[in-house]
Amino acid sequence: MNDCDSPLWQAQGIRGRNRKASFRRLVRSPGGLAGFVIVVVVLAVAILAPWVSPYDPAKQNITQRLLPPAWMDGGSTDHLLGTDTLGRDLLSRVIHGSRVSLFIGVVAASISALVGVSLGLLAGYARGHVDAVISRMCDMQQAIPFLVLAIAVAAMLGPGLVNLILVLVVTTWVTFFRVVRGESLSVREEQYVWAARSIGSSDLRIMARHVLPNVMASIIVVGTLLIANMIIFEASLSFLGLGVPSSIPTWGRIVSDGREYVDTEWWIALFPGLAILVTVIGVNLLGDWLREVLDPKGVGA
Description:
By secondary structure, the protein is mostly helical. The protein has helices spanning 7-28, 30-47, 49-52, 90-126, 128-142, 146-157, 161-187, 191-198, 203-239, 251-257, 267-294. The chain has 11 helices and no strands.
């Protein structure tokens, strides 16, 4: 048999064609392409923050406090977006704030996915009493408004990066649980799952090798969209003073610093707010494109 006709070569060819088809759909989708570009730019800025930031974000200069952006009267090209109440360069703070906000969003979404997916697989595959107990836990948490629960947990644990991530995980794992549980209930009845049981495969192996790969597309889409929600949640808690310590610049904290000066020094709150807006829109657009690509029902649409 020719090597090019082997199953390995055929599988590699299929994966290559799928990647090319996905790339073509990305180029043809204005929203998906815009979201991809935004996410890549924000990630690049966050990674390169120490090198692209013109100043130390914590450096204070009272003689330069409340300078307007460079294009306004009284502005300076040394501070393109102006300065805050302590004379700190706003552009540098927004750039460094992207690192914390994205880090919290990605880490919190990842841990939330680990918890929610694990419990969703267990409940959907095992069913019975296991499903009932975990589902009732989920219902109890969803009965409490997110912001109320997050504020209560954050107030008990206190401000801090680890505590903030824990708050976000505790309040968002149910999103993954609901999606994975629903799909696992359907996948467990497929013929290939019954065939795996008939040859003696353990439940853990079946969940890992057969159920999880078939719900992975939904997990990726939900995870992408949840990162955007995490960024908003972090900004909300930081705005209320329940996020990370005030010495660490985050977009929510910078907006909070400028809330008392909106009528006069509006740029302090505007630019970090725009950063949140653009990033969340970009992540949501990318998530919508991923849903379109990974949803088999939408491929032919």
